[in-house]
Every structure is written in C-alpha cells, then in structure tokens.
C-alpha cells in the first residue's frame, strides 16, 4: 500500500499560522505585563523608600530648626507656644497626609476594606495634629503682649482654605466610602473628585507650609535675613525640601502604573455582600 502524502496548501499553511499566532502573542503580552508589573512595583518601592527618608528628614530638620534657632518647645511664653505650630503641621499636613494618600498603593496586597479604615484613621491623626497646630498659633497670638492679630497674612488665608478642604474631604469620604448602604454608582461617581481634591489639598498644604516658613524667617530675622544667616539658609533649605517632597508624592500617586490593581474581593465589597 502506498501512503498518501498530505498536500500542504497555502490555505492550510495559513490556517495553521492563524491558530498558532494568537497563542504566541497572548503569551508574549502576559509575560510583558508580568514584567512591567514587577518593574513598576520595584520602582514604586524605591521611590517610597526615598519619600520616607525625605519625610522623616523634614520632621527632624524642623525640630532642629526650632530647637536650635527658635528657643525650643514649651508652654511658658507665647513665642515658645507658637513653636509647636510648624512641628505639628509638618508631622500632620506633610508627612502623615502624604502617607495617607499613598496608602492604597503602598499596601496593595491588603483587603480594600482594611485599607479604607486605615486611610480614615491616618486622616483622623492628621486632623488631630492640625487642630493642635492651629491652637498653638492662635494661643501664641492671643497671649502675646500686645496681642497679635489673627488671619491677616496670605499664609493664614491659605491655611484656612486648606483645612476647610481637608475637612470636606474627610467628611465626604466617610459618608461616601465608609457609611453602609451607599449605592455603588454614587461611590464610582464621587471617586475621581475625591482623588483630585485630595491631591490638590496636599499640594495646598505644602504651598501653605512653604509660605509659613518664609513668613516666620522674615518676621524673626528682619533685616538680617538678606545677609544669608545660618537660620535663613537652613529655613530656605527646608522649604526647598518640602517642594521636592511634594513633587515626588504627587508623581507617585498620579502615575497609572503604580495604581493598586483591583482584586476579586473588591467587587464583592462594593456590592455589600461581604464585609
């Protein structure tokens, strides 16, 4: 018997190629996506480490500036009481605020329900530090002899605006994402605005802080400021470091590749069928 040879026609050859090509392409795309994901996580981890170093350095520098040049901390006299204001604002409105808006991306493997609660708790801590800082500012002005007027500078106006926006974000976020029974459609509609105004509030907090450092240096050093004193140079460096920190945090929180990927339990959480 003679075995018939199967004739490979161009059509048959093309069909084979069409069936095999998508598999190869899909495998390539999956490998590329996995590689890109691991690369993004690695770069985020590096930037996050840098941001932590800068944030903690800012707190240490502000503490050193007040302790070395502004008489330290205490409650004995108005000038000393005021010194709590820049330290508490740096801890709350700069460092903790930055970590709060990065929280979802930093701990991406945790349950979203846990991340929501932690996000709210950190914001609550920010609010406590901001209120204590505000008290220090108002108390130092009231108890000064003669008393110092409140809310007359651009720094104070921006401060009131920033705190008002933060409170609005805190309340609206609690009602929209933590209060039970809120419709999924409402959560999805409000999320882009919550994200945008959260980042905007953080940028305003940095801008207000930089204005505050400059204002304090000008009031304290007066004409000596233009002679490049050590305190003036050190204070200017703190302001520049705040701007660098702001740019780094905004970049990390707005870069799409660093976004936390949705998990299967997230969709269940949105519908309210599982805690």
From TrEMBL:
Pfam families in the record: Cytochrom_B561 (PF03188)
Record keywords: Electron transport, Heme, Iron, Membrane, Metal-binding, Transmembrane, Transmembrane helix, Transport
Signal peptide: none
Cofactor: heme b
Location of this chain's protein in the cell: Membrane
GO molecular function: metal ion binding; oxidoreductase activity
Spans through the membrane: 46-67, 87-104, 125-145, 157-179, 191-213, 233-253
Entry membrane topology: Multi-pass membrane protein
Domain Cytochrome b561: 50-254
One GO CC annotation: membrane
Entry keyword annotation includes Transport: yes
Domain of life: Eukaryota
Keyword Ribonucleoprotein: no
Chief localisation class: membrane
Protein name per UniProt: Cytochrome b561-like isoform X2
Organism: Sipha flava
